[in-house]
Amino acid sequence: MSRLTEWFARLWVALGSLGFGIAVIPLNDTLIKLLGETMALGQIVAIRSMISLAFIALFSSGLRRVTGLS
Q1: How does pLDDT run across 8-67, given as a tens digit for each residue?
Q2: Residue 56: CB partners within 8 Å, gap ≥ 6?
Q3: Which of 18, 28, 37, 40 is 20 to 30 A from 5 via CA?
Q4: Which of 65, 59, 51 lies closest to 4, judged by CA?
Q5: Would you say residue 61 lies in a domain?
Q6: How far apart are CA 20 and CA 70, in angstroms?
Q7: How many CB atoms lie within 10 A of CB 5?
Q8: For the stretch 34-61, what's the b/e string if a residue is b when 16 or more beta carbons lie within 10 angstroms of its beta carbon?
Q9: Over the chain, what HEC string results?
Q10: Are 66 and 53 in contact (CB under 8 A)?
Q11: Contact at 8 Å (CB) between 37 and 31?
Q12: pTM > 0.70
């Protein structure tokens, strides 16, 4: 885990991650608006939540922490 932390501490990786995050936010909003025309809001929220949980599980040990919540 410390190897991954050291990799993300590099300046170019941190700036690239920040740029990617800034680019994903408007893309996410646009996709929600486009999907809202054809899908129900509950389905969109469920799909978005599953994708978020997949990212949490991929990049951290957060899935164990999420399942431990009340």
Answers
A1: 788 888 899 889 889 888 888 888 888 888 989 889 889 888 888 887 777 776 566 667
A2: 62, 63, 66
A3: 28
A4: 59
A5: yes
A6: 32
A7: 8
A8: eeeeeeeeeebeeeeeeeeeeeeeeeee
A9: CHHHHHHHCCHHHHHHHHHHHHHHHHHHHHHHHHHHCCCCHHHHHHHHHHHHHHHHHHHCCHHHHHHCCC
A10: yes
A11: no
A12: no
49 within some domain: yes
The Cα 28–Cα 55 span in angstroms is 14
* Cα distance between the two ends of the chain: 27
How many residues appear in the chain? 70
Domain count for the chain? 1
**Domain of 66?**
25-70
**CA distance linking residue 41 with residue 43, whole number of Å:** 5
Residue 10 included in any domain: no
- Amino acid symbol at 50: M
